[in-house]
Amino acid sequence: MNVMFNKRRLRLLMCGLLFAPLLSAGDYSAVIAKVKPGVVALGNYQALRQPAVIFVGTAFVVADGRHAITNAHNIPPFLDPAKKESLVVVVPDEQRREVRMATVIAEDQAHDLALLKFSDAPLTPLSLGDDAGVKEGREFLISGFPIGSALGYHVVTHQAMVSAITPAVQPVYNSKQLNPRLLKRMATQYKVFQLDAIAYPGNSGSPLYDPETGKVVGVLNSVFVKETKENALQSPSGISYAIPVQFVKALLREAGLDAE
After folding, report:
1. CATH number at 131-246
2. Rounded-to-10 torsion of CA 132, 138, 139, 143
3. What's the Rg (C-alpha) of the chain?
4. Which residues make Cβ contacts (< 8 Å) with residue 123, sequence separation at least 6?
5. Would you indicate the residue range of the signal peptide (predicted)?
């Protein structure tokens, strides 16, 4: 009787070990539902053009719900007033898209960040976390528009592990790799989060956030960081990077806004 009982316990224990990863796998549905209303698309708008909105990247709502953070490189370098072009955020909706006029009110070129203010009623702002708690091996979520309007204006979420915390600019061993932009960035060295997620063009500006709390710990960045870290590569990788949220908080404080 005891032998049979012990064998049964052993089988149950083995089943528990086999299925433990499945049972402990995260259900992120609640936190994604919490974050999605604060994620918007960024675009160049011209009413008579088809399509009227040319997608340029992702942004997320902060502070009082009337401001958003994105990458500075997402901002169109020139908007033609003669053609009535303007910067807009696109609020995704199941029924229809809502387009809101936006203006850049502050930039941090050193960390490739831009602060926008948009029109109409406030949206749901995302809470900002503490990037000091980000460690290698931790899992986070990214919500944004990975391939822009090609997939429709629907917020898409991916999972990413922090595979390394590294300098934003790698040392160069050949003077031919140097250029004025790279030299300027080398003068303001800082750490970035290297992620194991594939970098999609439209995800630049997406929030990197804690899967339990939804608090933002970084801003996804592809172009800016890859230009410096992968300057020596003929074929840049699909690795993603994120700018720590501490620089977002600093930009908000400079603008006199809530940095939490």
Report:
1. 2.40.10.10
2. 20
3. 21
4. 37, 38, 40, 61, 65, 66, 91
5. 1-25
Q: pTM for the whole thing?
A: 0.80
Read off the pLDDT of residues 61-78 as tens digits, 9 standing for 90 and up: 999 999 999 999 999 888
Burial 180-213 (b: 16+ CB within 10 A, else e): eeeeebbeeeeebbbbebebbebbbbbbbbbbee
In this structure, are residues 68 and 125 in contact, taking their beta carbons and an 8 Å threshold?
no
Picking from 96, 89, 153, 145, the residue whose alpha carbon sits closest to that of residue 119 is 89
DSSP label of 36 = G
Report the C-alpha gap between 71 and 114 in whole angstroms: 6
First to last CA, the chain: 62
The token duo for 230 is: 């992968």
- Determine the 3-state secondary structure of 131 from DSSP: helix
Residue pair 76/67 in contact (Cβ under 8 Å)? The answer is no
Give, in order, the Cα–Cα distances in Å from 112 to each of 192, 247, 260: 12, 10, 20
Write down the residue that tokens 């400079």 correspond to.
254
Superfamily classification of domain 32-118: Trypsin-like serine proteases (2.40.10.10)
Is there a common fold for 32-118 and 131-246?
yes
* Domain-wise residue ranges, the chain: 32-118, 131-246
Q: What is the pLDDT of residues 141-170, one digit of tens each?
A: 999 998 776 777 889 999 999 999 988 755
234 φ/ψ angles, rounded to the nearest 5 degrees: -75, -35
Q: What does the chain come to in residues?
A: 260
